[in-house]
Amino acid sequence: MQVTTTADDADALAAVARDAVAARLAACAQLEGPVTSVYWWQGALETVAEWRATLKTTRARADALEAFLVEHHPYDVPEVLRTPVIGGNAEYLAWVRAEATG
Q1: What is the CATH number of the domain that holds 87?
Q2: Listed residue (10, 31, 96, 19) closest to 65, CA to CA
Q3: Maximal C-alpha separation, the chain
Q4: What is the DSSP letter of 1?
């Protein structure tokens, strides 16, 4: 699984991603940005610079990773999206499984 989230504070997002990997909820995290996000929030149209974290995990760890991200994220309602991985380098996917289960 790939799990993505965004935040407007690169350092805070990096800390959350680092803590998730340290807790073995994900094998790794990649941070990229800034990206420009346009969205409605509390009745106002917002345009902000955000950073994106993409964390690699297993289907079995995805619920725990999502709960961790929601609990530790700096936003009240963080974006947390899951995307299934349907294939890829078998050795890499085995590494993700091994590292995300500790």
Answers
A1: 3.30.70.120
A2: 19
A3: 47
A4: -
